[in-house]
Amino acid sequence: MRSVPKRAKGNSRAVISPAAKRLTCALVIHAGTETKICNKDFLRPEHLNRHMLTVHGEHKEWICKLPGCQRCFSRADNLSDHYWTHLDKGDGRGRNVKWSLEELKSLLPPDEVGACIRLGKRLHQYRALARNSDRRRGRKSRSR
User: Fold this and answer.
1) Contact at 8 Å (CB) between 109 and 65?
2) Looking at the DSSP assignment, which residues form a beta bridge with residue 23?
3) Residue 26 near residue 13, CB atoms below 8 Å
4) Per-residue b or e along 105-143, where b marks 16 or more CB atoms closer than 10 Å to that residue's CB
5) What is the pTM of this model?
6) Is the pLDDT score of 132 beyond 90?
7) pLDDT band at residue 26, thresholds of 50, 70 and 90?
8) 28 in any annotated domain
9) Residue where one domain finishes, among candidates 38, 56, 74
10) Which of 83, 127, 82, 128 has the alpha carbon at shortest distance from 104?
11) Contacts of 101 (CB under 8 A, 6+ apart)
């Protein structure tokens, strides 16, 4: 049995625990006068890499392309999820400016057509769940 933790391949800040075969983020975090180690555990290298990019990464190349929104993200899927917060779902919740799906399609550039398709599918599921919830509670369905 190996008692010394070995380094994960391709990641100098990850340590593989010999017992559990877990990857641990060993990044040193400096917060003011305090210094600590992240120590988050992951089972798969891609999850550790995603963590490093999302939590510890400073490069945020994915920018919301909607007027008046300056949010930036380190991953494209986070930007795609962010567009959901701009979609008018009829509940009036959230602080972002809301647009209908058609308005979002016209505001977003052609390279974001995939995001619009996913938003449309997600909105359809959201409304179906709301209708089913209303039926169970004995209320009339919400209008589209």
Assistant:
1) yes
2) 16, 42
3) yes
4) beebeeebeebbeebeebbeebeeeeeeeeeeeeeeeee
5) 0.64
6) no
7) confident
8) yes
9) 56
10) 83
11) 87, 116, 119, 120, 123
Do 34 and 68 share a structural domain?
A: no
Which position has the token pair 């988050």?
40
At 62, give phi and psi (nearest 5°): -95, 110
Per the structure, how many domains does the chain have? 2
Q: Which amino acid is at 125?
A: Q
Q: What is the distance between the alpha carbons of residues 82 and 72, in angstroms, rounded to a whole number?
A: 10
The residue type found at 62 is W
Give Cα separations from 71 to 46, 50, 96, 99, 114 (angstroms): 25, 19, 11, 17, 19
Question: 103 is written with which tokens?
Answer: 């308005």
Q: pLDDT tens across 69-108, in order?
A: 989 998 888 999 999 999 998 887 888 999 999 999 999 9
pLDDT in tens, 44-64: 999 998 898 888 888 888 999
Alpha-carbon torsion, ordered 80, 85, 87, 90, to 10 deg: 150
Structure token pair of residue 72: 């930036």
